[in-house]
Specification:
- The protein is 0% helix and 55% strand.
- The protein has a single domain, classed as YVTN repeat-like/Quinoprotein amine dehydrogenase (Methylamine Dehydrogenase, Chain H), CATH 2.130.10.
- With 219 residues, the chain is mainly beta.
């Protein structure tokens, strides 16, 4: 963990209602979690940790985000883990039509109101996608991304140097100008997976501890 950055200001911990939570999104009402053990997604009340609905993903759910009244979820196929973009309608579940992720890989999703963004961890980049899943723009980043959301037009990223280095940091990444600007905001004192914002607080997962953590927005 970086000794030069302040540590995130935790405000709440929830016991995850599902084992090994990794994907996380907020739809305005519920926090959605995806489990890599049950291959299901869950709508969770953040006050009580209760589940209002759950759906089988037909594969392993990774990153997810809210897109209007729906969700988009990165799902790994059961056999070879090729990644696809799936559509979920709360109250109805997963829809049949899925789009292949570029290069059959991708982890985290974010939506800015116009376009969907997909991160590719080991390629160290964020892809801006059109409605058909084709790449409009590739945005390089310096560190591996382990969670992603968009707040006020900027990416907020959970990052690490590599799987072998226990150094997780929250980064604000502004890609709206000709050259992206990355600002490290806080150190994360645990292995963080996924990132969501509920309008006030960020949320992330400690997969190995089956725990969901809320923390204040730095600054």
């Amino acid at each position: 963990m970086s000794a030069t950055l302040p540590t995130i200001d935790e405000v709440q911990r929830l016991s995850s209602p599902c084992p090994a939570p990794i994907g996380i999104a907020y739809d305005g009402t519920y926090l959605w979690l995806g489990s890599v053990e049950t291959d299901r997604i869950y709508a969770v009340d953040t006050m009580h940790g209760s589940v209002s609905e759950e759906w089988p993903a037909g594969g392993t759910p990774y990153g997810m985000c809210a897109l209007g009244d729906e969700l988009r979820v990165v799902v790994g196929e059961p056999v070879d883990d090729d990644r696809e973009l799936a559509r979920v309608v709360p109250g109805h579940g997963f829809k049949n039509h899925r789009l292949a992720c570029p290069d059959a890989t991708g982890s985290w999703l974010a939506y800015d109101g116009d376009f969907l963004f997909l991160s590719q961890r080991f390629q160290k980049r964020i892809l801006e996608l059109d409605e058909g899943g084709a790449v409009r723009r590739a945005i390089p980043v310096e560190r591996e991304i382990t969670g992603m959301t968009i707040v006020d037009g900027c990416f907020y990223l959970m990052t690490t140097e590599s799987k072998e280095v226990d150094d997780y940091r929250l980064v604000r990444f502004d890609a709206r100008g000709p050259e992206p600007v990355a600002t490290e905001l806080a150190a994360i004192p645990f292995v963080a997976r996924g990132l969501a914002f509920d309008g006030t607080r960020f949320w992330t997962n400690i997969r190995a501890e089956n725990t969901v953590v809320a923390f204040n927005r730095p600054g």
